[in-house]
Specification:
Strand content of chain B: under 5%
Distance between the termini of chain B: 39 Å
Structural class of chain A: mainly alpha
Largest sheet of chain B: none
Oligomer: heterodimer
Order of helices and strands of chain B: HHHHHHH
Strand content of chain A: under 5%
Distance between the termini of chain A: 57 Å
Largest sheet of chain A: none
Structural class of chain B: mainly alpha
Number of domains of chain B: 1
Radius of gyration of chain B: 18 Å
């Protein structure tokens, strides 16, 4: 009896692995629209409901996930799970995130994709494709709020975009080139749009 | 088959390893590996897969990897492509989490990241360019794209609603 009580006490202090797994499983099952749509839901669960992290920790985790390669939510679930329950926590958070996606897509690929050649589906997709284009372009604007605010990063963006489209530069070379340019021409020398023309103050973008 | 499966795994491993900036930025990498280099599927089919990845729950990168893997090499392909795209994260994230929290405020790292961010956006722009080549087939499809872009930027309209309306518009216009 005593042991059981002690065990319970310990468990309540720790985040449980199944709790992590099912949290990410439910977010992975019900969030449509990709990684950036999942972040606000994860935030609500982890900060507002479960109070595992505060806002600052959450933003740090997001910064780590965004700064490393790999799908955003995959990285984010790994960081979150790892910081709460070590390697096992990270692994099970990751599994929860990707299992629904994997199973749903597999089901569609096996059972529904064969109807893709159907003329109704063909016509529908002709209307869907421009919407997808609009979604991708809107992602550039939404994610680019900070980048488009400074001459320096706007020039980088234009140069990289021209490079990948006109000269077919390899995407990996662009990422590495971005890191190199960022070091050679560090922020702070750039000017802010709409502020004083010699604003050299902020080292942060 | 073995060659195909290992090819899939390493293609998606590369995509995961160099895919900064989330799903949309990774689309350009996936398109290059799958459509241009290996020619496992056509540009039009690739766009339809993006549409599907948008419509179904979960991260777009995972959805695309699973689907492309299945189309190219069946169940094993789906599994290995998905494993390939998450493996770099599995290997990097945990050691990096420890280092990163310690060095995140270093100026050199911040400077490099400030150059990587516009590069990531340019890759998303490339994905838009690739999709645009097959999506904009006439004046009407261009009008749909421009209208949707304005709605997405200036209203809180749900992307799924736009995709559904796009399907209806496609049936009305092109049938």
């Amino acid at each position: 009896m005593d042991d059981l009580l002690h065990q319970k006490e310990e468990e309540s202090q720790k985040v449980k692995i199944p709790e992590l797994f099912f949290l990410f499983l439910s977010i992975g099952t019900f969030t449509i629209g990709g990684g950036y749509a999942m972040i606000p839901l994860i935030r609500r669960e982890i900060i507002d409901r479960k109070k595992w992290f505060d806002d600052q920790d959450f933003l740090d985790n997001l910064a780590i996930a965004q700064s490393l390669p790999g799908p955003l939510v995959v990285n984010f679930s790994l960081v979150t799970g790892y910081r709460l329950r070590g390697f096992k926590g990270g692994l099970f958070s990751l599994l929860g995130t990707i299992i629904p996606s994997f199973l749903i897509i597999l089901g569609i690929a096996i059972f529904l994709w064969q109807y893709r050649g159907n003329y109704l589906v063909q016509a529908a997709f002709l209307g869907i494709r421009p919407v997808i284009l609009a979604l991708i372009v809107s992602a550039v604007f939404k994610l680019g709020k900070d980048v488009f605010r400074k001459y320096r990063t706007v020039i980088f963006f234009a140069a990289f975009l021209g490079g990948v489209i006109i000269f077919n530069i390899h995407p990996i070379a662009v990422i590495l080139g971005g890191a190199a340019l960022g070091l050679l021409w560090p922020p702070g020398k750039g000017r802010d749009f709409g502020r004083g023309s010699n604003n050299n103050s902020g080292p942060k973008e | 088959m073995f060659v195909l499966l290992t090819g899939l795994f390493f293609s998606f491993f590369r995509i995961g390893l160099f895919g900064f900036g989330g799903g949309y930025a990774m689309l350009a990498l996936i398109e290059r590996e799958i459509v241009q280099i290996h020619q496992w599927m056509s540009a039009a089919e690739f766009i339809d897969i993006i549409a599907l990845a948008e419509m179904t729950p979960g991260p777009i990168a995972i959805n695309s990897a699973t689907f492309v893997g299945y189309r190219v090499a069946g169940l094993g392909g789906a599994f290995l492509a998905t494993l390939g795209i998450i493996s770099p994260s599995l290997l990097l994230i945990i050691p990096a989490t420890r280092l990163f929290t310690r060095f995140y405020h270093l100026q050199g790292l911040q400077n490099a990241l400030s150059g990587i961010h516009p590069a990531v956006l340019a890759l998303i722009g490339l994905a838009a360019f690739v999709v645009g080549k097959s999506a904009l087939i006439d004046f009407k499809s261009t009008a749909i794209a421009v209208g949707c872009l304005l709605l997405l930027l200036f209203t809180r309209v749900h992307p799924l609603l736009l995709i559904a309306l796009g399907a209806v518009a496609g049936l009305l216009i092109y049938l």
